[in-house]
Amino acid sequence: MPQNVYDDPQFFEGYRRLREDGPALNEALEQPALDSLLPTSLAGLRVLDVGCGFGGFARHACAAGAAQVVGVDISSRMLEVARARTPVRMPIQYRRQAIEALEAEEDDEVFDLVVSSLALHYVADYPAALARIAALMAPGARLAFSVEHPIATAVAAQQWHRDAAGRESHWPVDGYQHEGPRHTHWFIDGVIKHHRTVQTLLDGVAGAGLRFARLLEPVPSDDDIARLPWLASQRRRPSFLLIAADKLR
Ligand SMILES: C[S@@+](CC[C@H](N)C(=O)[O-])C[C@H]1O[C@@H](n2cnc3c(N)ncnc32)[C@H](O)[C@@H]1O
């Protein structure tokens, strides 16, 4: 059974607050990096957002002139918010579907752009997920996705080590080569994230028949840190890894 932690009321409330109480790491680092992997124009594209959450990217794609926008997510709570935030003039289709069961609604349904932001590390079978995604990509389509960086997920605690004064002393990396589930505490106990190496992340792209295009490990700029000083520790270790890959024509 795929994990559906975003439907847990306590987790959902914690995550909702995180995303609503000012810019989170997503807005500050991950989203700008993901944007840089997208085609210059989304106009006329058929767009699929895998693990769409509150539907922020789906609405962005719709406003940018995408011809069709579909957002899929396993969490009914996330989709409820996504639907509530989507104006009626935006014909976005939200579908409740696990990535593990991702499939076309109609036989010939394919997309020109597939985006997945911070969802694939919740999926145990990464090669199978990429194969399902690739099957939904039109020839020449782009896939752009982000996951929590393997350096951040190697140790389940996902915490800085601190010195006696409480300052961040170092980020522990251990068991890097030991891939698999990490039972971590994030708002609640027992949140499962699947740790995999950079090599596995890239091999999965090739294994799904896609051509690797770019890999990003976003770092905050001086301006970012001047605006949001708490971003400074992001220069010491990466939080996110992003990959862009294309389906051959
Ligand atoms: C960190 S949130 C990111 C949401 C959105 N992509 C964004 O960037 O704002 C991860 C999302 O992935 C969804 N998700 C996690 N595991 C999933 C699965 N197996 N199938 C479909 N969606 C999943 C969650 O329900 C959640 O909405």
How would you portray this structure in words?
The chain has one domain: Rossmann fold (3-Layer(aba) Sandwich). 29% of the residues lie in helices and 28% in strands. It is built from eight helices and eleven strands. The protein has a seven-stranded mixed beta sheet, with helices on both faces. The chain has a two-stranded antiparallel sheet with strand order 6-7. A two-stranded antiparallel ribbon has the order 8-9. Strand 2 (68-73), helix 4 (76-85) and strand 3 form a beta-alpha-beta unit. Helix 5 (126-135) runs parallel beside helix 7. The structure holds S-adenosylmethionine. S-adenosylmethionine binds at residues 2, 6, 26, 51-54, 56, 73-75, 78, 98-100, 117-119, 122-123.
- What is the total tally of β strands? 11
CATH classification, class level: Alpha Beta
- Fourth-tier CATH superfamily name: Vaccinia Virus protein VP39
Return the string of H and E elements: HHEHEHEEHEHEEEEHEHE
Hetero groups bound? S-adenosylmethionine
Q: Per CATH, what is the topology?
A: Rossmann fold
How many whole angstroms does the radius of gyration measure?
18 Å
Q: With helices defined by DSSP (H or I, 4 residues minimum), what is the helix count?
A: 8
* Poorly predicted ranges: none
CATH architecture: 3-Layer(aba) Sandwich
User: Strands of the largest sheet, in order across it?
Assistant: 3-2-1-4-5-11-10
Largest sheet: 7 strands, mixed
Mean pLDDT: 97
Beta-strand portion reads 25-35%
Structural class, from secondary structure content? alpha/beta
Query: What is the total number of structural domains?
Result: 1
**Percent range for helical residues?**
25-40%
Distance between the termini: 35 Å
Please state the overall shape, judged from the principal axes of the Cα atoms: globular
